[in-house]
Description:
By secondary structure, the protein is mainly α. The protein has 24 helices and eight strands. The strands form four sheets. Strands 1-2 form a two-stranded antiparallel sheet. A two-stranded antiparallel ribbon has the order 3-4. The chain has a two-stranded antiparallel ribbon with strand order 5-8. The protein is elongated, with a radius of gyration of 27 Å. It starts with 6 loop residues before the first strand and ends in a 10-residue tail after the last strand.
Amino acid sequence: MRLHLIGLALLMFGCKGKDSAIDPGSDDSVSCSEPSPVLMRRLSRTQYANTVWATVDLLGGQTLTLDLADVLSPRLDALPTDSTDAGLSREDQAVTQAHADAWYLVAELVADRAIDPVHFDTVFDGCRDAECVDDFVAAVIPRLHRRDLSADELDFYVDDVYGSAPTHTDGLRDVVLVAMASPYYAHLVEHGSTEEGDLVQLTAYELANRLSYHFWSAPPDDALWSLAVDGSLLDDVVFTTQVARVFADPQTDDSLDSFFSEWLEIDQVAPMSSLVGSPKFDAFRAGFTPSPQLTSDMQQDALDLIRWHIQHDGTLDDLWTSDLNTIPSAELAEIYGASPWDGSSTPQRLDDGVHAGLLTRPAFTASGLPSTRPIHKGVMIRKRVLCDQLGSPPADIGEEPDVDPLTSTRERTEALTQIPGTSCAGCHEYINGLGFATENFDGLGRHRTTEPIFAEDGSHLGDTPVVTQGMPRVELEAEDILTDAIALADALAASTKTDTCVARYWFRQAYGHTEDLVADRCALESVSDVLTAGRPLADGLREIALHPAFKLRKFDASAVGGAL
């Protein structure tokens, strides 16, 4: 499939947009053999925490895990939160002193508990003198480094780390501490299997790590590790089988939840109960009192809809149009005017004529305010669902025009942002129409046909009709007038831009950096082509690992820290 990048200068101040296509220009001869460079990657906060708990289980099983449950979590919580400013948390590759301090303190805590008399014999397999240290190092350190170690590296742990300690017990403690404090522990280090050139095939160990950390956010399990040790993971048939096994594992569900939460900003749903007690909000909620749990229920509703479609061969288009009931609680069911889902049976259709797909769910329409946020909704769809670029708002937007208080949110938004000739109008021509399509849902996600207007003291000033019709410009140059969110859902499903946009964000999740639309074109198209063809979303998600680029690493010789 040929996809082209169309540059479009939006009309006004600083607002330039591009469509989301994957594009190497018009040259079909561009090679797919050399992907963009991948620097050495730091484990994300989630990946690191999962790695630590896997280490604890490897060393001491359930007993050590239970012993550390209350004291290790605060140490892990001290790690800096990964920024999503770039788009996804895995793209945050900053390494600060706070990271180094937290890594060391975690390693120290685990090592100290490992030599506690209660755990010592379990962790060190009864090793009571120097004669068995070699065996412990050879068995455990490769698992902690997640690679095969040379004889010199193993000797370093035995002779230098263990050998320099004052006692046998201190030596074993230091072996665990140094291994967990190593850069090999907190990073995905990939040297490749060849010594020459800047494009290398990953080793079996490195491939096992890529696979498990992408889909599980965790280190390889025993089965994957065994296939790395004997090298059979490099066989295409074996690897394809493992991709299917890893993807089907329940650990993948959590990683997918995290990805979709970040990509679609589900993790940023506003609190629904924070304004309870304020006159204006109390009048707006009209007797419905949102609990602190409601926000989480809204998030779960959206994630359950996504998960159901992934697990039951749903397509990406289904996500934009499906009206299946995945409501997790009676409280959220009241918002919908429906009954909650039991969480296991085949979901029934809402069939209410207003909910069509993911973007009509309260997680995307509710603001937690008496008013809605059409600009916020429009920007999210434009940037996250369609992968169009938007310029930054101007530093000075001038004086706000006077707006009649008895106007709808839509009318106020249009008055503030769409006045011809202003610095705002050019961008908002491509934002507002997307946000207006769901104005028939209020700030709590409830369906409405009119918008009640309240003063700050809670007095009811009047009602205005809700208008959802608009020009959303799913394709930037399109001028189709769509009536409502259902029509928008159909337009999103019909557009290939959503397919290519998912491919781009999923690439970033897999590789930890923004895609190069030339070098990474074929890896991106391998995913987007699956989705455009109407195949299951699960197939597209697996496809990223099945493309040959997943087994390669390209070095950037000019980049500091490209290898270890």
